[in-house]
């Protein structure tokens, strides 16, 4: 069982992963179906190098895993509960005023 401090660290990691729009899009795409990096890069309109950096962050945060498929890797959410959590977050976002922005959006410690 996690301690309160451990739970907070896990939540903070999840928050850091969600802090980037591209990583959010990757998670939403992987919620729909596992995908190969080339497919993700093409769908997102970004380079494979840039995608690789984002996937590394998501792996380090424990949110996605690479599953070997022959000589390639397919990415998927690390746990099906993450998909449910993403669904819940997406539903909750609807309740938040869309005209709000973080006052310190450019600062690392922004909400």
Summarize the structure.
By secondary structure, the protein is mainly alpha-helical.
- Total number of β-strand segments? 2
Helix content: 55-70%
CATH topology term: Arc Repressor Mutant, subunit A
CATH H-level superfamily: Winged helix-like DNA-binding domain superfamily/Winged helix DNA-binding domain
How many discrete domains? 1
* N to C succession of SSEs: HHHHEEH
Number of contiguous helices: 5
Low-confidence stretches are 107-111
Distance between the termini: 27 Å
Question: Biggest sheet, in brief?
Answer: 2 strands, antiparallel
What gyration radius follows from the Cα positions, in whole Å?
15 Å
Tell me the name of the CATH class: Mainly Alpha
- Biggest sheet strand line-up: 1-2
Mean pLDDT: 87
Outline type: globular
Keywords: Cadmium, DNA-binding, Metal-binding, Transcription, Transcription regulation
Function: Metal-responsive transcriptional repressor for the cmt operon. Binding of cadmium or lead causes the repressor to dissociate from the DNA.
Protein name: HTH-type transcriptional regulator CmtR
Organism: Sphaerisporangium album
């Amino acid at each position: 069982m996690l301690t309160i401090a451990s739970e907070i660290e896990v939540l903070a990691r999840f928050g850091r992963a969600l802090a980037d729009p591209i990583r959010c899009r990757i998670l939403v795409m992987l919620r729909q179906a596992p995908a190969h990096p080339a497919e993700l890069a093409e769908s997102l309109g970004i380079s494979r190098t840039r995608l690789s950096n984002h996937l590394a962050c998501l792996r380090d945060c424990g949110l996605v895993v690479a599953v070997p498929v022959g000589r390639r890797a397919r990415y998927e959410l690390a746990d099906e509960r993450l998909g449910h959590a993403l669904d819940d977050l997406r539903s909750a976002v609807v309740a938040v005023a869309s005209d709000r922005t973080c006052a310190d959006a450019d600062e690392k410690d922004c909400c």
